[in-house]
Amino acid sequence: MATSSHCLLWFFFSLFFGHGFVPLEASHQVYIHLQNRSPSSLKTHQPYRTGYHFQPPSHWMNGMCWPMIYKGLYHFFYQYNPFGAVWGNIVWAHSTSTDLVNWTPHKYAISPSQPADINGCWSGSATILPNGKPVILYTGIDPQNKQVQNMAVPKNLSDPFLLEWTKLPQNPLMEPTTMNSINASSFRDPTTAWQGTDGRWRVIIGSKINRKGLVILYRSKDFVRWTKAKHPLHSGKKTGMWECPDFFPVATNSSMGVDTSSMGKNLKYVLKVSLDDTKHDYYTIGSYNHEKDIYVPDKGSVDNDSGLRYDYGKFYASKTFFDSAKNRRILWGWINESSSVEHDIEKGWSGVQAIPRNVWLDKSRKQLLQWPIAEIEKQRINPGHLSSRELKGGSKVEVSGVTASQADVEISFKISDFEKAEVFEENWTNPQLLCSQKGASVKGGLGPFGLMVLASKGMEEYTAVFFRIFKRQTKYVVLMCSDQSRSSLDDDNDKTTYGAFLDVDPVHEKLSLRSLIDHSIVESFGGGGKVCITARVYPTLAIGGEAHLYAFNKGTESVGVTTLSAWSMKKAKIN
Amino acid sequence: MKTSISLPIFIFLLYTLLLSFTHCSVLAQKNTPFVDKICKQTPYHALCLKTLLSDPRSAGADVRGLAIIMVDVIKRNTVSILSRINELLKKGGTDRHKRGALLACIDKYNAVLNGDVPEAMEALEKGDYKFAEQGATDASLEARLCEENFETSPITNMNKLVHHVSLVAASIVRMLL
After folding, report:
1. What are phi and psi of A320, to 5 degrees?
2. Which residues of chain A does B13 touch, with a Cβ-Cβ cutoff of 8 Å?
3. May I ask the CATH class of domain B32-174?
4. What is the ipTM of this complex?
5. β-sheet bridge partners, residue A5
6. Distance to chain B for A243, nearest Cα, Å
7. Which residue, A308, A371, A387, is CA-closest to A526?
């Protein structure tokens, strides 16, 4: 860079003395249709805004890494751009709730104000100290645009809303230096801290060295002075940057959550990272050696992007917290738009949150299970049940009596005849690709069967969430797909199909599917939470009252529907 | 300027000007193998090489520096195409469909100028590179969608240019992830 400025110096020197003046380009021109939206001028026609999924009134929201509970009140801090519908100028916005469904917005909790965060207040996590006091560690961008870690504490602990936060004058507490060789553009997202047997606090921060992703470990006695450990807690070759890490224990003998600092028997540990490269959140289950501070995934774990994901659709920068009020571990995830930036600017907003999910260890100990929190069921009204029936091949049945654009639907299938199941080919290793090739309109032997949501009356538009069953030697493979290819007549949007294999034995178990439908988001749960797939869709016809909901079977073989329940969902006070 | 003293001064200044150009291009050439290596990994190798080497900043640039140059190029080309669309609209004589397509392109390129480019720049400066990738990728999408609006596009080459340089920028950013 020094050589190029040297060049420029010569250039301008010669020009200046030749002509005495260097004309500057006009830096700003106004074009017709230039949009500069303020919240009050938000477009009135908003068919895609959610009824019960969290989103701010306008502008950009991205991954929020720090949910927490304090004095019985849930807090939600999220990354927000006050000036536009794209990422930038990031501050911490803040909302509170008593039930994780209805939210009250507050003033921004944190915005740039000291050198350690003057160029940005990025993600972090809350830790509840043993005395009940919450503290936040977060990534700040310093005057040299380096990523550093800072701390903030509530200004007034007797304020249950925790409106004001004080930043430590000692910030930054952790920063890249020539001594520690931390990459200053790859050092962010501190986790909730946990205490070891020696009483010292541990925290991990996402980073990378070239293409090796890792979580850097820091330890502290007083939560202010932190020392970098020689080794990372864990790392992964060729995975790229590890963002928004989350490290927590889960009980092996219960679906209840446990505190992040819990120790003892009957626990396994989960390390989840958000991969910058692929935009997927993947996790492993393993053991944590407390003495050596090393995490080791269980044998057989796939420790990269091909591994287990919380969600096989759109779901990123997720984070859990221990809800001490109800002894559960709750997962939040950011769902970005699948629309073009032009559409985002036009509608004036971007980004929603998934419905908070309970998360716990499956009995097999090989994966986590997730399920929407029970509180969301309070939004259910106008229940509709279809009697159990056989759904013949090539048929569909409408689920009427619910507002199909804002609904919750649960359906269960039982298969009695597997004769027509197609043979599974061993080279079918990528379920997402398989779902793309065998979309909802491709007839199969056993499947596709499932739900068609946000469907227009003439079926010009629909989003299909469904199963296909294949025969593999003596067993059966279940594929779950969320097919967005016909979700909208507007081709400006990303209509990628998502898919995953569902670990359910259809011979002995029923096949269940739940979908939470909310205008432009479809969150689906297969097998009681074994596979989750979230999608964003932007129908042009199937909006509001014009949306329809169907159960369908486009396979050759008929399938049994044992239960089908659907509810309209009441609008929540999302902000 | 009086001819009696201006000519020697003029020749001196011309010499200095030439010197600064050759000086700069020698420095840029020193970095050519690296720039070439990067450009080979993008979908438009020749365009990437030509564009980067013609910017003096590429002389000492690392991957991030090259990405920043390409985002600047997206911006410059977006400003140009918006200007051209403006001209075409002012000129008039276009049928309703073409006019509608031109107006739709204005919205798309405004999104690139006011959304994608600032987002990508801030992301590159501060190190959250996926947002730079997102911005650059979206810019290529907006260019493609603009072009697809027309039956016969009056701005095909300009749309193609934005589309191609955006994809080059996105692929350079991917090397940072």
Report:
1. -105, 165
2. 14, 17-18
3. mainly alpha
4. 0.89
5. none
6. 10
7. A371
